[in-house]
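Lecture 7 notes. Example A: sequence first, then its C-alpha cells.
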Amino acid sequence: MSRRTTRTLIGGAAALGIGLFAALPSALPVSAASGVPTVRLSHPHVLYDLGVHSGVTRAEVLRAAAAAPTFTQYKASVKVGTKSYTYIIAGKNPAKKMASPASVITTELVPLIVKFSNGDSWDPARKDSCDSGASALTRAQNSPVFKSQSWTWGGTKIGTGQITDAYQRADFWKYAKPAGINPKFGINLKMTTLSPVTIHVPNADAAAAITGCGNSRLGLVNVAWLDSLLRKTVIPSLFSRGVNPGTVPFFLLHNVVEYIGSPATACCVGGYHQAYINSHGAQTYGLADYDNSGALGSGLRDITALSHEVGEWQNDPYIDKGRNSNPTPAWGHIGQASGCQSDLEVGDPLAGTTFADTVGGFTYHPQELAFFSWFYHQKPSLGVNGWYSDQGKFTTSAASCT
C-alpha cells in the first residue's frame, strides 16, 4: 500500500443515501452557540444498507459497466425450483475451471475528515483517547480486510488471504477446496491509501451524541447530504488520483455515522455500498465508520462495518436497494430484516453478529457473512463444512419469507 499527500477540502451540497442503521435517539436542546443539535442514543440497534438509491435502473447500470473498463466480475444464473436468478459477482466464476481463477481488484481507502462549524472534528488519521495505540486509519490498513493471514474455520484450512478473500473461497468451497476445480480461486484487494478528504458539514446537516472518549462526540451527518457530496463532488475529484469504474473506493470515517432525515428520529447510518453512473461509467464505492466510541454497542466495533460492506460489495456490486440488487428468493425476519428482502446482501441476515480476529496484537471484530447457498436454497451447501455462513451460525438455508 502507499500513501499520497495532497489533501482535498470540500463542503456544501444535498441529495440522497443510506446504510448502517444504529439507534433511535431522543433529541436534546440545540446549542444556540453552534447551531449543532445534540441527541441521546438509547438502545442502539445496528442495521445496514437501507435505501441508498442511485436513481438509475439495473439495465442502465449494466450498460454503463459494459461500455467502460471495470473491475473483474462475472455474470451467471442459478435456478431455484422453476425460477432462474441472474447475478453479477466480483472476481471470476469459481464454477468454471480455469488456469488462473484468482482476481486482483484495485481498492482505494479514502479517509474522510469531518468538520463541524462549532469546531468539532473527526480525523481517521489521528490517534485519540479511544485508542491511544494507533489511528483508525492505521487500524483499518492493518486489519484483516487488507492484510493476509492463514484461515481455519471449523477445523478446515481455508488458505491464506484477506478476510473477504477467505469468505469468498469458503462460500464456494465445492470449487475452491484443494480437490476442487479451482483451488486457487479468490479475490485479492490491492489497496492504496489516498490522502484524506476534508468535508465541512453545514449546521442543517450536522448533529452529535455524547461519548466517553476522543473528542467526547459521536458525529452525525445527514446521509442524503453526504452521499450527494460523494457522488457529485468527492468521487469526481478523485479521478485524477486513480479512482474510476475499474477501481473501488471505500471511504473511511472515524466515530462518525449518519442519520436519515432527522437525527432525533432516524439515527444512525454507519456504512453502505452503492453504484451510480458518472461520466466515466458505472462507479461502485462504499463508506464505513471505524467505530471505537463505544456509543453503538458490540454490534459495531472497529472494522465491523467495513467488513460488512466489502463483503456485500463483492457479492452485490451494483446494488440499488430493491431495484438493482442481485435478486434472490425472498428471505427475512432474521438479522436486520424485520420484513422480507429479495437480494444477495450477504451481511444483512447476520447484522450484529461478529467474531474476534487478532492481527498484529490487536483484536478486530469483523462480521459473519451468509453464503450464496443460504440465499438460493442449495442442498447440500456449496460452502465449507456444509455451512451456510462463514462461522457456521447458519446450518440450513434461508426460510421462505412472505
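Example B, a different protein, same format:
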Amino acid sequence: MKAIAYTKPAPIEAEDALVELDLPAPAAPQGRELLVEIRAVSVNPVDAKQRRSVEPGPTPRVLGFDGAGVVRAVGPEAELFRPGDEVFYAGVVNRPGTNAELHLVDERIVGPKPRSLSFAEAASLPLTSITAWEALFDRLQMPQGMPQPRRGVLILGGGGGVASIAIQLARQLTGTNVLASAGRAETRAWCEQLGAHHVLDHTGDIATQVKIMGLSIPYIFGINRTEAHWPAICAVLAPFGLVCVIDQTGPLDLSKLRPKSGGLVFEGMFTRALFQTPDMIGQHRLLAEVSRLVDAGVLRHTATEHLGRITAANLRRGHALVESGALRGKAVLEGF
C-alpha cells in the first residue's frame, strides 16, 4: 500500500523529512478494530512535533492523527460499524498513523462521518473536536445550556484548529461569554466568524483587556504559549476557577493559583486510547455528537487549506504551514 513516513527526525526543509513508501498492508482487524480505507487526512501540530523530534524506531514511521474514510473490514468483536460505513476519527500516537491507504483503528475512538461533509472537510475535525470538547466539558467542567451572562471562558490562541472548534462549542452549547485571543487582523476576523463574543489582542495586555469587560473568568483554555501567558492567566482567573492547558514547554509558577484556590488541568486527547480507559468509547460518542451537530448546521468544519493529494510533497507543505504558526483552521489532503 502507498504510505508517507519518516525515517529519522529532520527539519521540514529536508528533502527526506517525509518520504513515499510502498508498505505491506495491515493485517486483518482483530478484536474491535476496523480496517479503514483512508480517503482524506489533515495535519496537526503533533505530526510536526513527532517528525521533528521523535526517533521513528527500526522501521519507517507513518504519521497522521486525523482520518476520514470507508470501513473495509471489521474485527470479530466490532459492534459499532460494518464494511461500507463512512467514518472519521483521530488515531493514537503509539500506532501507525493515517498517512497510508489502509489503517487499523479501534472502533471505540471512531465516529460516523458527517453526511453533509466531504471526506476532506470531515478530516479537519476529529482531533481538534475531541481535544476542544474534552477540555471544555470534561477538564474545565463547563455546564452546557446554562445562561451565565456575567461569566466568561477565555480561549487563548484563537486561530488554530483546536480553538476553532472550542470557540464554536462554547458559543453554541453554553451560555457563557466567549473570549478568544488573536494577534492578527485576519485571525481576529476568523474568531468573530466562529462566534467569539470578544476577541482580545494577545500581543498586548490581556489582563487589562479582560478587566475592562467586567466579566468573571472561571474557565481558561490555554492552547499554546502557556508560559508566556501565565501571568495574565493567573491575573484574570476567577476565584475557584480552572485552567486547562495542552502544551507546557517550561516551568509554571503554580503558587500564583493558590490565593484563588485555582486549579490546573491538562488535556490530552490520546489518553483514553493510550491507557485503554474504561470510558474509551466516550470518544466514539463524542464524535457521533459532533457529526450530528455538523449535519444540523450547529458546527462548521474548519478546513481552510486544501493541499491536494496525499503525497510526501504536499504533506511537507502541511507540516510547514503548521510550523509557521500562521495557519487558521486546518490543512487537509485528499486521495492517494
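Note on Example B: The domain at 2-125+273-334 is CATH 3.90.180.10 (Quinone Oxidoreductase; Chain A, domain 1). The CA atoms of residues 218 and 241 lie 4 Å apart.
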